[in-house]
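subagent[fold] <- orchestrator: predict structure for attached chain, return tokens only, no commentary.
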Amino acid sequence: MSEEIIKRYKIRAKKALGQNFLVNNAILKFIAEAIEVEWKSIIEVGPWYGALTEKLLDQKPKNLQLIELDKSMIEILNDRIDRWELESWEVKFSIENIDILKFQWNDLFQDYSVIANIPYYITSPILRHFLYTLDNKPENMVILLQKDVWDKILLWQEYWDRSKTSVLSLIVAKKTHVREVIVVPSDNFIPAPKVESSVLVFRTHSKYDEYCDKKFLKLIKVAFVASRKKLSKNLMNGGFEKIDVTRAFGRLHIDPMARPENLWIETWCKLSEELY
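subagent[fold] -> orchestrator:
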């Protein structure tokens, strides 16, 4: 069906928007069922021509809000609605042509989940937006992204290999628990990307909410300027006094030779409170 729609509307992927269209219906259905959708409020980011939207509508959410930046895709979505291909009799269904980072929530989405297929270049901004910028955070996020991003986000959590931590993995770990639900080979897309993709489920938590988000984000930004260098040196180069760094390391039992990628999430949270 997806390939037929692509042919019907003569859709061409826009490289500037990072478009690679998932055309495997079984995988689309799997994504739509990765979390509980029935009678829930769902925001789908980047629906494009509505392949995943169809599967979500089948799950009968309470509300389904589509956020699409590409105006040509909005026209296709509306035409498919007119053709009764995107039926929403029992669903409050709407489409917004706007940048997801500028979209403002309303009371409709007090409890909601996000489902998205996003390109690599906007992964970090979207995660920051939902997890840190917005006061009302989603309960869950189901995101299809490139496999190499999975390595940065999830590998260290799964295998407890602390040498794999990064700015992105720490940003995610402070707010969510993550699991991979399926690997998607590149031949399931049109056009086929050069790498495999992964579907990750993020479930938000409040475990580290006692630690200030602004302090935490500011600290890891300074600390990871040179991730292979000693953390203490990066911090001092970033404006912290040596005596303050030494005292904080002593209180938190941090190895003076540690690199930024070696610290555990809880230690980062505590260190941000110590230094700011």
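orchestrator: received. Logging for downstream: Residues 47 and 104 are 18 Å apart (CA to CA). Residues 158-162 have pLDDT under 50 and may be disordered.
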